[in-house]
Amino acid sequence: MKKISFRRMLPSKILVMSFIVIIFIGTFFLSLPIAVKEGQEISILTALFTATSAVSVTGLSLVDVSLVFSPFGKTIILILIQLGGLGIMTFSTLVFTLIGKQISYQERKILKEDLNSYTIGGVIKFLRRIVLIVIGIEIIGAIFLTFGFASTMPLKKAMVYGIFHSVSAFCNAGFSLFSNSIVGYSSNKTVTLTIAILISLGGIGFAVINSTISYYKTGKKTYNLTSKLALYISFFLVISGTIAFFIFERNNPGTIGNMGIIDALTNSFFQSVTTRTAGFNSVPMENLRPSTLFLFLILMFIGASPGSTGGGLKTTTFGIIIFYVMVILRNEKDLVISNRRIPWEILHRAMAILVISLIYITVIVFLILMTNEITSIKDLSDVALQGSLQGKTIVHISNLTLDKVIFEVMSAFATVGVSQGITADLNIFGRILLILTMLIGRVGPLTFMLAFSEKIKVRSYKYPHENVLIG
User: Fold this and answer.
1) What span, in angstroms and rounded, lies between the C-alpha atoms of 310 and 66?
2) Which of 68, 220, 313, 401 has the fewest CB atoms within 10 Å, i.e. the most exposed one?
3) How confident is the model at residue 222 (pLDDT cuts 50, 70, 90)?
């Protein structure tokens, strides 16, 4: 039997395994009686689902976190969110460096993969700077949120809520200690704008934050192309999403229809930011119009930037594909962005991520629809919920529909966490599929696939080429 060497394992495989290990550890702690409030009880699957959602910084949940989990349980969830947001390998490497342990070349390769850094050189220095930045941003965010929450609760409780929501927002997790997310604070600009800014900073990517600091600190007034793409595309998505949400929902009394113009614009901005990756909501999700939900699907699928706490296709991947389409339409030879020629290997990777993501989402939606029986009854007034209708036993009645299943799967895959309220209606198999989807969405579909593939094999020969008609 072949002995498996840690040093020979692919960094992507170790990265995936680290997330799986911390998920199981989190599941164990959330399964303890002390993790839930007195009189409450959760299953192992619910604990696993919650732990996965926290580590993958998604925010989907089978139970109301604020009502079911005890302070101990909420603390465990917060720790899992922070670990998932920073990255397991990032956090463990930080601990090792603090105790004076030397970081090996293999560990640096894994850290590079976790941080989505360009090179191995200087990765430890980059890590330390990022951790300090994260702690600083979360502390400042907690202070502002404490003031925002203090208007409706005691100061001590406001501080606890401020810390929890600051970490959850920056890590783009979407977990809230309120049953209705932050709908109750839709008119509190301190809360909504602080959370929106925290989400934006967490979703823009550590590399972009580092580049911005260097931009002003070193006097080198230039950004690398990754940072430029991430900033430009994120800005475009936020502005266009804000305008679209405002137009679609302005006359909807169930969302922003009854708000003043300033509050309506603030909440439109908030939803445009949070829908791409975080999962908080300041308006009731069940009241949104179909056009708005479709807009949300697009924003969720694109997601955050690479090397960030968010998921999705990623802004730069989306940008590369859009620019490539423009190259084809213009009949140009090279893919050039901002006076820089992009290697075709980058495009190949972007297209692979797009295709794998679409195929995966399609398969999961199909499996959930196929394995979760839906009985449609127009009038339940004369029919018992557990009875028979024309000789057919009613096994399960739910509100599962194609559009809601697609929305839920997309939310899990993009690690967003906004929900149409059908997660609890799924059977065991459906919930396991969502658990897998959240994990893959966090580590990235291509990284996950490569983790279980063989090392690259280079042929010493080439086959003759032949054209294929397409289009």
Assistant:
1) 23
2) 220
3) low
Q: What is the pLDDT of residues 200-209, one digit of tens each?
A: 998 888 778 8
Question: What is the DSSP pairing of strand 340-341 with strand 388-389?
Answer: unpaired
Instruction: Give the SS3 label for residue 268.
Output: helix
Show Cβ contacts of residue 308 under 8 Å, excluding neighbours closer than 6 positions. 172, 202, 203, 204, 205, 206, 277
SS3 state of residue 392:
strand
In the chain, the percentage of residues whose pLDDT exceeds 90 is 46
Any idea how long the chain is? 471
Name the token pair of 25.
């550890």
Give the closest residue to 406 by CA, choosing from 372, 443, 362, 441: 362
Q: Do the Cβ atoms of 293 and 255 come closer than 8 Å?
A: no
What does the domain layout of the chain look like in residue ranges?
Answer: 11-378+388-451
Check pLDDT > 70 for residue 425. yes
Q: Which helix (DSSP H) or strand (DSSP E) does residue 389 occupy? A: strand 388-389
The token pair that represents 223 in the structure block: 């950004």
Cβ atoms of 263 and 187 within 8 Å: the answer is yes
Estimate the crossing angle of helix 261-275 against helix 189-204, to 10 degrees: 30
Q: How far apart are CA 395 and CA 196, in angstroms?
A: 42
Tell how many helices (H) and how many strands (E) occur in the chain: 18, 4
CB 172 within 8 A of CB 199: yes
Strands 392-393, 336-337: parallel, antiparallel or unpaired by DSSP? unpaired
Please count the other Cβ atoms lying within 10 Å of the Cβ belonging to residue 357. 23
| Structural tokens at position 412 | 């899990």
- pTM comes to 0.84
Report yes or no: 452 and 69 within 8 Å, Cβ to Cβ.
no
Cα separation, 138 vs 104, in Å, equals 30
Q: Please, what's the b/e burial string for 156-195 (b: 16 or more CB within 10 A of its CB; e: otherwise)?
A: eebbbbbbbbbbbbbbbbbbbbbeebbbebbebbbbbbbb
Q: Is 393 helix (H, G, I), strand (E, B) or coil?
A: strand
Dihedral over alpha carbons 137, 263, 179, 302 (to 10 degrees): -60
CA distance 175 to 280: 7
Do 310 and 304 touch, CB atoms closer than 8 A? yes
Are the CB atoms for 28 and 11 separated by under 8 Å? no
The angle, 0 to 180 degrees and rounded to 10, between the axes of the packed helices 290-302 and 261-275 is 40
Phi, psi of 328 (to 5 degrees): -65, -45
Encoded amino acid at 385, one letter: L
